[in-house]
Amino acid sequence: MDVFDKLVKDGGSLGQYMDRAHGYFAFPKLEGELGSRMQFRGKEMIVWSLNNYLGLVNHPEVRQVDTEAAAKYGMGNPMGARMMSGNTAKHEELEKVISEFVNREDTMLLNFGYQGIMSCIDALVNRRDVIVYDAESHACIVDGVRLHMGHRYAFKHNDIEDCEKQLQRATEMAAKNGGGILLITEGVFGMDGEQGILKEIVELKKKYEFRILIDDAHGFGYMGPTGAGADEAQGCQDGIDLYFSTFVKSMGSIGAFISGPKAVLKYLRYNVRSQIFAKSLPLMIVEGMLTRMEMVKNMPELRKKLWQNVEHLQNGLKERGFDIGHTNSPVTPIYMKGDVPEATQMVMDLRENYHIFCSIVVYPVIPKGDIIYRLIPTASHSDEDIDLTLKAFEATKKKLDAGKYKAEKIPDMAERV
Questions:
Q1: Structural domains in the chain plus CATH codes
Q2: Helix %, strand %, coil % of the chain (to 5)
Q3: Residue 300 to residue 227: CA distance in whole angstroms
């Protein structure tokens, strides 16, 4: 059998919809200046799909420093991996700034979040070690765990009792194998908006021997009194051994980092394969990040505006009877019932008639009959953006409940050449 045959036969779990969905439901093109309002197929949309929590993407200071850094360095500087020829004083300066901000001894920059945490997990454990992780961890964590050739146990999402049960199993296996235990969870879960139960997990260190790695991609920059992350918000920084996050959300840039004990970071620098065999993070990005970090530290009004918008949106949804689950972060899920064709009809109504653009999740990502809309309020949204969105969801929810979106199949909205 030709290895390609199975690829083109049905397209895979999500690809099965590609002939109808491409360009509209999947791979849509948002155009214009990044912000709360953008263009989609020639219409202005209120956009709720960007993780631009602090509104830094188009902040004048950020745009200026990015422009100046691009002119100064270009994309190619430095050339080569950091271990060989791509290290600079600026890279080390940014690592020091981040270490101080997240209250850790040392930090290592990573080119990308997804590939970075996968490679860090791979470097941290060997076949004798055991991994324990939250069952609803992001795909990058799941894929990192898949690289592990030893035992791994998933605990039910944010369930401390099941977490302890899996730690008990891991303790027995680690003792048998002569290995250790790495527990992995998230600071803020990007789909349901719940913070990870970090403080409760840290308490389990009193009973079990293990280390904790958290992915705080959705918490870094705004959670906690200074914005240092979900562990700061929960008052348990000292108990979190390794702190990982990205620059692609609150920071509005690209790249990532991992922070922790100096001895461990020294090891990672020489063993994280996605870094030692890849080009260094471009200097124009590093310089832009230094400015962003200063803004996060010195402009608390950005966090204040974000949380004002979060309260406005989430309270408005709850007052209108919407189920937003147990989110305790800006990530705002809206849980509804309906099949895939209904969901797509509702998306089209929101976009075409109400000019609301937000992400939607349906089967096979979640069980049949469920629909999840995910809204990301940011510091750049206005009160008008929020009020118009609340009215749109109230109107379309009534149509959904009345069966007005019933359809036999997904409409064909794919781009045609």
A1: 5-53+300-401 (3.90.1150.10), 60-298 (3.40.640.10)
A2: 45, 15, 40
A3: 9
pLDDT for position 417: 38
Q: Which two tokens stand for residue 316?
A: 């408005």
Torsion of CA 57, 63, 69, 74, to 10 degrees: 70
State the DSSP H helix or E strand holding residue 284, giving kind and residue range, or none if neither.
helix 283-298
Q: Which two tokens stand for residue 158?
A: 């944010």
Question: Which tokens in the block code for residue 212?
Answer: 């904790």
* Cα distances (Å, whole numbers) of residue 216 to 37, 165, 245, 275, 329: 27, 24, 5, 20, 12
User: In 30-156, where do the E strands start and end?
Assistant: 30-31, 37-40, 43-47, 106-110, 130-134, 151-155
Q: What is the DSSP string of 175-235?
A: HHHT--EEEEEESB-TTT-PBP-HHHHHHGGGTS--EEEEE-TTTTTTSSSSS--HHHHTT
Whole-model pTM: value is 0.94
Smallest CA-to-CA distance from 350 within 15, 18, 49 is with: 49
Please give the pLDDT value at position 16.
61
| Number of helices followed by number of strands (H, E) in the chain | 16, 14
Q: What per-residue confidence (pLDDT) applies to 111?
A: 94
Residue identified by tokens 């765990």 is 145
Question: Do residues 396 and 390 make contact, with C-beta atoms less than 8 angstroms apart?
Answer: no
Q: pLDDT averaged over consecutive 10-residue blocks of the chain (417 residues)?
A: 77 64 85 94 95 94 95 94 94 98 97 94 97 96 94 97 98 96 97 96 97 97 96 97 97 96 97 93 96 96 97 97 95 89 89 93 75 94 98 94 78 57
CA gap 362, 360 in Å, rounded: 7
Q: How crowded is residue 377: how many other Cβ atoms within 10 Å of its Cβ?
A: 24
Among 279, 283, 287, which residue's Cα sits nearest to residue 82?
279
Q: Say which DSSP state 279 is in.
A: P
Per-residue confidence (pLDDT) for residue 200, from 0 to 100: 98
H or E stretch including 337? strand 332-337
